[in-house]
Every structure is written in structure tokens, then in C-alpha cells.
Amino acid sequence: MSDTNQSHSNTMPFSRIPFLPLLRTLIRQKYTFTMLVLQIALTLAVLSNGLFIVSQRLDILQRPTGIDETHTFALTSSGFTQSFNPQNSIKADLDALRQMPNIVNAVATYAFPFSGSSEWDELQTSTGQDEITVPAASYKLDEHGIEALGLTLLAGENFNTNEVLWQTQTTKTFPSAVIITSKLASDLFNTTDWSTVVGKTIYINATYGAVIKGVVEQLQAPWDAVGKIENSIIYPRVITRNSARYFIRTQANKLQETMVEVEDYLATSNQQRMIRKVQSIQTIKKQVYGPDIGAISILMVVIFALSIVAALGIAGLTSFNLVKRKKQIGIRRALGANKTDILSYFIAENIIQSTCGVLLGWLLALGLNVFLVSQYALPKLPLSYVVIAALCLYILGILAILKPAIKAMNISPALATRDQ
Amino acid sequence: MFGYYIKLALKSVKRNPILSLLMVTAIALGIGACMTTITVNYLMSADPIPHKSQQLFHIQVDSWDPNNAYSDDADSLPNQLTWTDATNFTLAKKALRQSAMGMSGGIIEPAGDDAKPFEASIRLAYTDFFPMFDVPFIYGTAWDSQSDTDREQVVVLSKRTNESVFGGENSVGKTIVIDGRNFQIVGVIDDWQPMPKFYDVNNGGFNETEQLFMPFSLKEELELPNWGNNNCWKSPDGEGYKAFLQSECINTQMWVELPNDLAKAEYMDYLNNYVMEQKKLGRFPRPLNNRLSNVMEWMASQEVVEEDAKMMMWLSFMFLLVCLLNTIGLLLAKFTGKSSEIGLRLAVGASKADLFKQHLLETALIGVMGGIAGILLALVGLQGIKSLYGDFVDDLASLDLSMILVALSIALLSSILAGLYPTWRACNIAPASQLKSQ
Question: How far is CA A219 from the centre of its chain?
Fold first, then answer.
């Protein structure tokens, strides 16, 4: 007997956990045990789905648009008198802006990523009503557009000045050259060799033919109306309306001062219009993604609060059990169990509880996900999120019982057994 | 007896301050999260015009592309009308009241040298708009129907516009300059912000009411810019503003007031006849499919309540459930710890019913405390939502009395439910076994 005892005291913690008595204890406290398991299961379900939604939204937020988002801003110039001439005003403004030393380039456009308003055209590679069409958001930019937006031309070339058409909103004349995004090129021609796309003719809204002059790497649509955000087509056009929008790109680190400078200049240069909505693209992006940022914040608060509640619940129950079992622990200590045994007992108990919770929670998480998928266009929950959430819960559980378990470990056998 | 139980409950709550605090916090967090999301959902799905929402109908007719339905669903209808159809429906006067409407905007130049011009949104409508939606006036009235027909440059101001241009005084009869044109003011409306803004949910269901109102017929007359959503399946035939207006593009909303089912059925007949007539002219290539939706039906079909808001509500319900399970577990533990006291009281003559009542009262007390703390948390949560989503949700993020009552009842009910089982268990012990071990 003494030999076995000897060998026991030299073994690692967890190596002599009394599993059967442990299970029996858990079964005896089946109600608190059930509550704890249910709580862990539900927490896991909410945690894994919540984390998944957060990461989905973060993906949207971080997705690149193809433009220089950090050094650009936009503003609106609205003429309000009956004698206001929009075309002269836009030409004069852009000429002046392009002369400013802090400005890389400027362009008049209603559409840019995050601007929210866009028109969509249907494109096809041959004429006729019954061809398969590919939708694309339409941009109207002059030859300065590519530099002003900060686009990367992969093949072909930019528009030249005499290709650019100055038109009113309802003019029907169509330009003969266009530039398209690489995603649109591959959708139309099923190729990734962009140089082969240049020079080909496409047909817009089954009517107008135009030759592809260049391919840009990326330019997201201003508004994802049809789930084809990477499909954009640029026409060499400037649309003149009383209310014009300018998109301006500045030198690095000159954004803030240029915004002030430009607003001051434009406000005084022509009294027949007013300058409004001078906003950096970052600001506009934040507004557009406001609901997503909001949802992320709320979910993070819920996830955090939920973890705290779950941890406090586990800690509370463990400490309460501890009070009840003080005497038993004392007896076990008196009978030869050392401090590590007591600690590992509590940790093992906690791991068993967490495991039961995690197994049930896995099912609940999938169930909740099935519900969310059916109700609100949410993709299927990948297993990795359940695993991450489960790991979090294991760690949380052990942290929660650490204090009561150490307290139990330090129960003196003499004191605990004395008050009989 | 009740007072005595309260005293006992308070004493018991105080005896385990940390445990009690834990339970109150758990309930408060759960209630706080639920109340925040329920309030947002409740306000988003509120009936904006309760006394009339059954009699107001939004018109939909299928004027869309012969080859494709308006959306993926083959039965779906365009959510707006073409300018042509909305104008025809309004001029036909087949309903008690009717108005085509659209959005535009312009720049107001206030009189005075130092006054700065500012941009204002415009609601274009017919005179029926005001009595149909019970819009309250401070000064003057709506324009008369003659102004609609004669395309007079008249305007109704919102209260805020009247304040910023005329300092809030009675401006009826005065002139206001909008985009360089003179308009005569016929009325000023009082604060009016239907929530949701049901009459035009395509252009933001929770946006602010427009700053100016003017006759819809001026859209054609003055070629006013088209603000708001415009959707086309076919580009306009020809160039210019007229071609755009007369195209198959949809950019106009249309509401009618139909006081009863008979009027509704007759109006439906009128719509069907209209479409059949138009079919002869080569328009409306799709199968006959017209719809009248009352206010709540319209908002449901347009999914005015944000999906995010609904999803958050479901998650917060689960959160409350976790908090309640937490409370049940803690109560079980607490009452188990009290078994010797319960045994003693049973032995000296208390009935099980007495003890049951006493302990239920204790859980109810915790519930009420949690509920009150939860309401405070919900207020914080709603402030948080305001700061996250910006000003436009101001009207969506406020607690009213009924919501506070709902919060308290949920807290009380859920804590009592949570307490039922632990209480029942606690009261079902054999007194002898508990007393023996002392």
C-alpha cells in the first residue's frame, strides 16, 4: 500500500483524478449541473454565430475598392441662379483645381465608390436582343479620371482629350471608346490576358457599340445593386448639371489643408453657386458602412457581456459548491490527497462540464445558424468559429473556477473536519 | 405576512451580497440588451398613422420588362410607378383622395444680405396629400386643386424651414426664392415626422420629412431634378427631360384613400381596366398584376424593419436566456445552502405554501431590482445606438412608458419563472434530515 502511495505522490497532476466519484458528484448535483451545461451551450451558440457575423462585416469593411481612399475627397457645387452655366463652371473649376500644387488631379463625377448613386448598364459581346448580358456600373470620367481616382491601368491606354463628350443627363450620343475593370473583362471574355481584351467591341444595352480602350485592375461600383460590385465600365463623358460633384486627389499628408483651401477658393470664385458636402472619402465610407460598424459594435458588446455573465455564473456556482463540500475536501485532504489533487479535481470537473456544454452548444450553434440563414441572408457557419468559441469557453471556464479552486486547495484538513 | 416576507427577502438578499449582485446583474444585462433591441424593432415596425392605416393604399402596377420580373420573385411588382401612370391615376380621381408624389430639391435663397443660401429637399405632391395624411398646419392651408391644374408656383414650408427663413413668424402670402424662382407661400406645417416615413420608404424609411412641399405638376413645368430612387428597364425614347418623364422609368409613389372594401374593390377594377387599355397601346407587356397595399402591408412588403435589427433582437433574446439560466443555477445553489433554515421553519410549523410564497417573493425582488437596472442599461444602450447610427435614429431610440412597463414585466416574469423550480426544490426537503445534521 505504502509503495503505491509513494508512486502516486510522484505522478503528474490529473493522473489520479477519481473519475467515478467525480461523475457521481456531478450526477448528484444534476440540476445545477444541467443549468451550467445549458448556459455554456447557449453561450457557445451565440458566441460562435456572433463572431461569425462580426468577421463577415469586417470583411466587407476591409475590402479594397481600387481607388486611393486615403488621399481623396469629394464636394458638391450647386448653381442656383437661372443664368448659371454648369459646363463653364465645371471647366473653370477643374482647370483651377488641377493647377493647385497640393492636388494630384481632380475630376467631375457623380459616381465613385461609396457615393451611393449609380446607373447600371447591360453589356454583351455581340449585337442582338437575346444575347447573354453582364451588368456593369457606369462611370463617366474625362481623361483625368484614372489619375484622380488612383486607378491602376493593366492594359491598353487612357482616354485622350478629344474622345471626351460633354453632355447633359439625357443626351443619347454614346462614346466610341470605354475602359472596363478586369473583373468585367473576365466576365465578358472569359480570359485573364487583359491585352487580348483591348480593341474588342462590346455592346451596351443591346444598342450602342464601343471599343475597349483599356482595362483597369479594380474599380468598385458606387452601390452594389445587383451583387456584381467589381463590374464597372468607364465612359469618356462629363455630364453637366446645375449640381456637380468633384472628386479630388491630393498629395500625401495634404488632405486636410487642401480640403479647406479648395472650399475657400470655390466658395469665392463664383457667387452663383454654393459649395456643399466637402467630405473626405474616408468619412463617406464610414457613413456608408455606419450600419455595419454599428452592428459590429453591438455584437462585440453582447459577446463581451455574455462572456462575463457566463464566467460569473460558473464562478458563482463553483464557489457555492465549494462551501458545501468544504467538509468533504477536508476529509480527502486528511486521507492523503495533496493540494494538486484537489485543484485538478476542480479543473477536471470544470472540463467535463464545459465539454458537455460545448457538445450541446455545437448543435445549438448549428440550429441558430440554420435559423439565421433561412431568415436573413447569412452564409453557413464554418466549423472553425464553433471551435474558436469552444476554446474561448474552456479558457473562460478554467479562469472562472481558478479562484474558488485555489481556495479549495488551501482548505486545511484540520479546520474543515473539526467543526463536527 | 407580506411585509414580513419582504423583510425576510431583503435579509436573505443582503446575506449573500455578492451572489445577489451577480443575479441582479445577470438579469439587468439580459433585460437591458432585450429592451434595447425590442425598442428599436418596436419603433421601426410601429403604425405611423394608426387611425387611418387601414384606409390608405399604396398602388403597384406591373409595368416592367416583358422578359424579366421586377426582382427574382416571378410575382414581384415594381415598388414605384412611372410618372405617366401616377399622373393619370391622380387626375382620374377615382378614390376619395389621391396623390402621386416624388422627391426633388432646390436651393433656398433667404432674403437679406448676410443670409446664406441653403439646400432643401422638396416633396412634390397633389393637394390631397395634406388631408389624406392628416398633416397639421400652423399657418395657412394646403394649396387648392386649381393650383395643381394651373401649375402655380406655390409652396408649403415645414416648421423648421419657416423658422430658418422667416424666424418662425406667419409667412403665408410671402414669397420665397427657390433655385432663382419666386414661389408664393400658402401654408406652414407643424412638426410632422411619421415614423417610419411610410409614404416614401424607397428613399429611406426613417428619413426626415421634406423641408418644402409643392405641386407635383411643377415637376414637368419647371423640369425639377429627380431626387430619390429612379429605376429603368428600358432607356427613355428620345432625348431631354420630357422623354425622361414619359419613359418607362419608375420614380413616383402614389397613395390613395379608400374608406371601405367596396371602394377598394372598385379601385382595383379601375386599375385593371386602365392596364388593359394601356396594353392596347403596347404598354404593360407583363401579365395583369396590380396590387393595393395598406400602410402596414406596404411596410411589411418593403421590409422596413432592418434585418440587422431583427437579428440583434433574436441574439439578445438568447442572451437573456443565458442570463436566466445563470440566475436559475445561482438560485438553486443559494436555496440549497438555505436548506437547514428551511428545515427549521418547516419543523416549527410553517407550511410549504408559506415557504414557497416567501421564496418566490425573494426571487421577484431580485427580478424587480434586475428589471430597474435593466431599464437603466437599456437607456445607455439606446444612447449607444444613437451614437453608433447617427442622428437619423433619434426618433427610433427612445423609451416610452409602455416599453418601460414591458421591461419590468419581462424582468419580473422571467425572474419568477427562473425562481419557480429552485423554490419548489427548496421547499420539498424533509425537515428531519436537515435538522439532524446540525
Answer: 19
Q: Which of A53, A80, A313 sits opposite B330 (nearest CB)?
A: A313
Q: Which helix (H) or strand (E) holds A161?
A: none
A contacts of B180 (beta carbons < 8 Å): 80-82
How many Cα atoms within 13 Å fall on the side-chain side of residue A57?
Answer: 20
For residue A238, list its beta bridge partners.
A166
Give the pLDDT score at A247: 94
Q: Where are the alpha helices (DSSP H) in A335-380?
A: 339-375
Residue A140 pLDDT more than 60? yes
pLDDT in tens, A73-114: 999 888 887 788 888 888 889 999 899 898 899 999 988 988
Cα(A36)–Cα(B325) distance, integer angstroms: 8
Cα(A328)–Cα(A348) distance, integer angstroms:
17
Residue type at A416?
A: A
Q: Do A298 and B238 touch (CB under 8 A)?
A: no
Give the pLDDT confidence score for residue A172 in this predicted structure.
73
The conformation of residue B394, written as its DSSP 8-state character, comes to G
B181, A312: Cβ pair inside 8 Å? no
Give the pLDDT mean for A405-419: 76
CB contact under 8 A, B421 and A299: no
Q: Which residues in chain B are contacts of A118 at CB distance < 8 A?
A: none
| Secondary structure class of A207 (helix, strand, coil) | coil
Cα B418 to chain centroid distance, Å, stands at 32
Q: How large is the average pLDDT for residues B5-13?
A: 80
Q: CA-CA distance, B291 to B61, in Å (whole number)?
A: 6
- Measured from the Cβ of residue A372, the count of other Cβ atoms closer than 10 Å reads 22
Q: Do A309 and B179 count as a contact with CB atoms less than 8 A apart? A: no
Picking from B207, B216, B217, B213, the residue whose alpha carbon sits closest to that of residue B135 is B213
Select the residue from B31, B181, B207, B315 to test the A interface by mutation, using most A Cβ atoms within 10 A: B315
> Could you say which of B241, B310, B389 has the minimum Cβ distance to residue A294?
B389
Per CB-CB distance under 8 Å, the chain A contacts of B106 are 80
The three cell numbers of residue A72 are 481623396
Nearest to B34 by CA among B392, B403, B424: B403
Task: Please write the tens of the pLDDT for every residue from A330-357.
Answer: 888 888 888 888 888 888 888 888 999 9
B123 has which bridge partners?
Answer: B103, B213
Give the cell for residue B20. 445577489
- The verdict on a CB contact (< 8 Å) between A376 and B307 is yes
Q: Are B248 and B85 in contact (CB under 8 A)?
A: no
How is residue B187 written as a grid cell? 401654408
Instruction: Flag whether the ipTM exceeds 0.90.
Output: no
